[in-house]
Amino acid sequence: MKIKKYKDSMLRFGISMAMMLVFWGGMLRKSFNADTISHMVAQDADIFWNIADGRYLIALGDAVLLKFGVRVTTNLSITMFSAFLLFAMAMVVVQKIFEQWEPEDQWAKIGYFFGLNLVFLNVLFSELLMFSECSFYFALGYLLAALGVERFRIKRYGSMFFLFILAVCVYQYTMIFAAILVAFYVCLSYEEELTPKAVAGEMLGIISCMGVGILNYLSIKVLEKTGIINSFNKNGGWGDSGQKIAGIKESFLSFNRSSFEIMPNLWIPLLFSLGVFILMIYSCIKNGKKRKLPFVFIVCAGSTILLYIIPLMQEKFSFPPRMAFCFYLLQGMLMTTAYAISTVNVHRLLSLGCAGYMIVQILFSDFVVTNHFISNTLDEVYVNMMYQEILKYEEDTESVVAKISVYSDAYAPDNYEEVNYHVHQINERALGTVTNSLIYKVTGRNFQNIGYQEEIFERYFKDKDWDYFDLSQQLIIIGDTAYWCIF
Predict the structure, then answer these.
(1) In this predicted structure, what is the pLDDT of residue 315?
(2) Are 91 and 72 in contact (CB under 8 A)?
(3) Which of 36, 124, 280, 287 would disulfide-bridge 338, Cβ 3.0–4.6 Å?
(4) Is a pLDDT exceeding 60 seen at residue 1?
(5) pLDDT grade, residue 239 (50/70/90)?
(6) 332 Cβ contact list (under 8 Å, min separation 6)
C-alpha cells in the first residue's frame, strides 16, 4: 500500500511539474524585472528590506546565501527551476487534500486535476515569476501554506500553526491562499450541509490563518517600537473608503472581463464561472440536493471577501496580479465542489469546459512569457547601445566617463510599446526605474550617480517627449559625465 501511495505521489508530482514547464518553461531563461536588478546590486541582498516587510524567512535565506558569497540571482535559471519544483510539490499537496472527492472516470479526473492546479497555471500567476529573486521563496511560502492545510485536514493543529507561521514569514498573502483552501475543504467535508459543526470548522481554520497574519503584523510593529526597523514598508490604515470600494469594483470587473487585460475583453473568466455554477445548480436540482447550494454560495462569497482583506488593510488600495491570481484558486475550488456534488454526465461537461479554459490560459501565458523576453532584451540592447556611445566618446577624447545622471522625458511609461501583455509588474521595463543598476548589471561598470541636474535638464531635455530610442538627442556627454534621458 505504501509503495502504491508513493508511486501515486510521484506520478502526481511528475504531471504537475510537466504542467509547470508547459506554462512557464520559458522563464527558465535568465529573466528579470526592476526588483531583480535592485537585488543584484543591493549590498545586503535586501535582507533588511525583507525584515521590514515581515518576510523573515526570506531575510534568513538571503543572509545564509550571502555568507557563502552567493545570491538567489547568482544563477536565475537554477533559482526558477527550484521554484517550479516547489510549486509542483504544492500542487501535489493540494491534490492530496481534496483526493477523497476525486471522480472515478478518467476523463473527469483530468478536469478535476486541472481545476486543482489552476491556481498556479493562469496568466496572473506570471507576476510571481517576474520577481526572479523571490520566485523560490514564493514557491516555498505557498508549499508551506498548503502543508499547513494538510495538517488541518488531519487535525494536527500544533504543526498546522507552525507551518502557517513559517509561510507567513515568507509572504503574507499565503494565508489568504490557505484560508480559501480551508473554507472549501470544510464545506466539502460536511457534504455542503450548513451545520453548527461546519461553521465551527470554518471559523477555526480561517481564524487560524488570519490570526497568524495578525501576529506577523504585530511582530513588525514590535520591531518598529524597538528601533530595529524605521517603519513597515507598507502603509497600513483605512484611508479613502471611496477609493477602496472603487478599487474592489474595478478589479473584480477587470478580472472577470479580461483577467486584468491580459486576455481579450470577452468576459472569458466570468463565462467559465457561470458555466460551472449553472452545471452545479442543475445537478443539485435534478438530484434533490438543493439544500447544498446555500453553503457553497456562502463559501464562494466569503472567499471572494478574503481575497481583498490585505488590500483593504493598506492605506491605498492595491490589488496586483501577485494577489489577484488567487481568483483562479477560487475558480479551481468551485470546480472541485462542482465535481463533488454533480453526476458523471455533468463531470464530462465540466472536464470539457476546464480543458478549454486551460488551453486559453496556456495560450495567453505563452504570450506573457514571450513579451517578457522582448522587454528584457530591449532593456539590455538600449543599455549596450548607450554604453557603446560612452566607449566611443572615451576613445575619441581620451578621457574617462565616471559619472552619470539619468532623467525621463515628459512621458516615460513602465513598459515598452512593443510589449502588448503587461499590467502592474508583469512585463515592466527596468530602464527608467532602476537605470543605474541596470547599467551596472549589463556593462559591469559602476558609474557614480550624481542625481538630477536641473540646469542640464532645462537646457537639453525639458518639454521633450520621445516615443522612440534616439541617443543623438537623448544622450549628452560633457567632460566626465553622461546625461541620459529615458524615453
Answers:
(1) 87
(2) no
(3) 280
(4) no
(5) confident
(6) 115, 116, 117, 118, 119
Q: What is the mean pLDDT of residues 97-112?
A: 93
| pLDDT (tens digit per residue) in 299-330 | 999 999 999 999 999 889 999 999 999 999 99
Query: Residue 80 CA to chain centroid, in angstroms?
Result: 14
Quick one: three-class SS letters along the chain? CHHHHHHHHHHHHHHHHHHHHHHHHHHHCCCCCHHHHHHHHCCCCCHHHHHHCCCHHHHHHHHHHHHCCCCCCCCHHHHHHHHHHHHHHHHHHHHHHCHHHCCCCHHHHHHHHHHHHHHHCCHHHHHHHHCCCCHHHHHHHHHHHHHHHHHHHCCCHHHHHHHHHHHHCCCCCHHHHHHHHHHHHHHHHCCCCCCHHHHHHHHHHHHHHHHHHHHHHHHHHHHHHCCCCCCCCCCECCCCHHHHHHHHHHHHHHHHHHCCCCCCCCCHHHHHHHHHHHHHHHHHHHCCCHHHHHHHHHHHHHHHHHHCHHHHHECCCCCCHHHHCCHHHHHHHHHHHHHHHCCHHHHHHHHHHHHHHHHHHHHHHHHHHHHHHHHHHHHHHHHHHHHHHHHHHHHHHCCCCCEEEEEECCCCCCCCCCCCCCECCECCCCCCCCHHHHHHHHHCCCCEECCCCHHHHHHHHCCCCCCCCCHHHHEEEECCEEEEEEC
Q: How far apart are CA 353 and CA 351, in angstroms?
A: 5
483 Cβ contact partners less than 8 Å away, ≥ 6 residues apart: 404, 405, 407, 453, 456, 460, 461, 475, 476, 477
Q: What is residue 344's predicted lDDT score, i.e. its pLDDT?
A: 87
Nearest alpha-carbon partner for 330 in 298, 307, 355: 307
Q: What is the pTM of this model?
A: 0.95
Burial class (CB in 10 A: 0-12, 13-18, 19+), 266: exposed
User: Mind listing the pLDDT tens digit for each residue in 285-298?
Assistant: 998 889 999 999 99
Give residue-wise pLDDT tens across range 164-220.
Answer: 999 999 999 999 999 999 999 999 999 999 999 999 999 999 999 999 999 999 999
- Cell of residue 206, nine digits: 480561517
Whether the pLDDT of residue 227 is over 90: the answer is no
